[in-house]
Amino acid sequence: MTKKSVILVAMMAILGVATAVAQPRAIGGQIGNGITFSYEHALGNNFVTADLSFPGWFINGFGVEAVATYNWLNPFGADFPAVSQGDWNWYMGPGLAIGNIFDGYSYTVLGDKYLHVNNNFYLGAAGRFGVEYNFWFPLQLSVEWRPVIGPDFWSESRLNVDDPYDIDNYSSSGVRFYHEGLYWSAFLLGVRYKF
Q: Which domains does the chain have, with CATH numbers?
């Protein structure tokens, strides 16, 4: 490669990075069945969203989930609702998701302590359908439905901690449709700082 080619490639790379960085961005969080950290990056009139979620924190378990979607942004009419400042938009788009949720609990029956454990590893297609309000200062509020559909590789076990040979001990696993992704962790309220 000649010096001119190297300089040209380097200039194009720097220009590409500068253009990407110059696009509007937003960072913030969402709350639903857990906590989500969210990042948005504008691409022309549309945007990409990357989420890192920790579902299940409000029940007996915990989990981690990564979701990325490409979203088409559509403004509502100027009279929806009549506001003198700020603007309303709706958006939707497809994406991908991967996650793992673990929950377990213990209980006592006739003096014996039992441990019940569930583990769900899932991956699949994600969608995002939402409404946002952008204030006249750099703050954005949103409400969205972010379903995830795909296979769920699950396992479940129950163990008598005091008697490992208990006849009621069991362990099973399999693959099923991840139906919880349609409702359990799919509804989110968000707030983001725009910069």
A: 25-194 (2.40.160)
